[in-house]
Automatic annotation (TrEMBL):
The keyword Cell division does not apply. It is found in: Cell membrane. The chain crosses the membrane at residues 247-268, 280-298. This is Magnesium transport protein CorA. It comes from Candidatus Giovannonibacteria bacterium RIFCSPHIGHO2_02_42_15. Keywords: Cell membrane, Membrane, Transmembrane, Transmembrane helix, Transport.
């Protein structure tokens, strides 16, 4: 589907899941380089920046939340920007792109302010929208971490192993989508001013600042989750050791009782105590004294 806004000689075009014929038609109209036209027809694995005489070509990947899989998934958006147009091409729904397009369509003042300046300002505002939308995604991750932190100390250690592992993967995917943006921004600092002029560097500095804030927050979330993982693992190990310790103590305590019972059960001619008055209670008493002595010894050695 092709959505388009034309205003004061500038065109904002959003192509969601376009057909090859639609891409070819747009490429001819906007005089897009043939290699770029071919790339727009398919997904691109790595982010990139290519500079041509009449336009810049950017490939970005954004970590957006996938409701179906309940995790963040990298989604690609291709951007072709010239002096008097900006084209976005994507094969998955990308909310920030749709929201930006709708804002420009509905807000005349915004459209006037952006379109009158040209491609540099529109690219900056759209890219800024991309990054600002990620703070909501980071808030979503932070809430998950907070819930995990509460449960770690409430006796749910084993249940949290899977939750922590899934969130670690989620943060890894988030980071893997964003880290290449640093290279893209650095490349644009070299090629962008040649195409849009030196003022474009101010836009890039603004984007770079927001990007670094996002990466700092992401790194903090990663460190916090790693600490929670280690804490959870330590608690599981401690509880397992306590269980093993308790079972070992029980085994040590029952062994002498079994031995005493076996000794008095030997079918011998002379068996002390057995056959006397209250012999049962005497044997039980010997067992209790033995257990009590062992418990006192364990307590003295601080094994209990």
């Amino acid at each position: 589907m092709i959505a388009r806004i034309d205003y004061h000689g500038f065109a904002l075009i959003d192509a969601h899941n376009p057909t090859p014929d639609e891409v070819l038609k747009l490429s001819k109209e906007l005089d897009i380089h043939a290699s770029v036209s071919e790339d727009l027809k398919r997904s691109t694995i790595r982010p990139r920046v290519d500079s041509f005489s009449s336009h810049l070509y950017l490939v970005l990947h954004l970590p957006l939340f996938d409701e179906k899989n309940r995790a963040h998934r990298s989604r690609e958006v291709d951007i072709v920007v010239g002096k008097n147009y900006l084209l976005t091409v994507h094969f998955d729904p990308i909310e920030p792109v749709t929201e930006f397009f709708n804002d420009c369509e509905l807000d005349l003042a915004l459209r006037e302010r952006l379109f009158s300046v040209g491609g540099a300002e529109v690219l900056h505002r759209m890219w800024r929208r991309f990054y600002l939308s990620l703070f909501a995604e980071l808030d979503h991750i932070q809430r998950k971490i907070d819930r995990i932190e509460e449960r770690v100390f409430n006796g749910h250690e084993k249940e949290l192993i899977e939750d922590i592992s899934l969130l670690r993967r989620d943060i890894l995917d988030f980071s893997r989508s964003l880290r290449p943006h640093e290279t893209v921004l650095e490349s644009l600092k070299k090629t962008g001013p040649k195409f849009f002029g030196e003022d474009f560097l101010k836009h890039l500095e603004d984007l770079d600042g927001i990007y670094r804030r996002i990466m700092v927050l992401l790194e903090n979330d990663k460190d916090t989750l790693e600490a929670l993982y280690d804490t959870n693992d330590s608690l599981i190990t401690h509880r397992s050791n306590e269980i093993v310790k308790t079972l070992t103590m029980l085994a040590l305590l029952t062994f002498p009782l079994t031995l005493i019972a076996a000794v008095f059960a030997i079918d011998a001619k002379a068996r002390p105590i057995v056959g006397r008055a209250n012999d049962f209670w005497i044997i039980v008493g010997i067992m209790f004294i033995t257990v009590g002595g062992m418990l006192a010894f364990f307590k003295y050695r601080r094994w209990l």
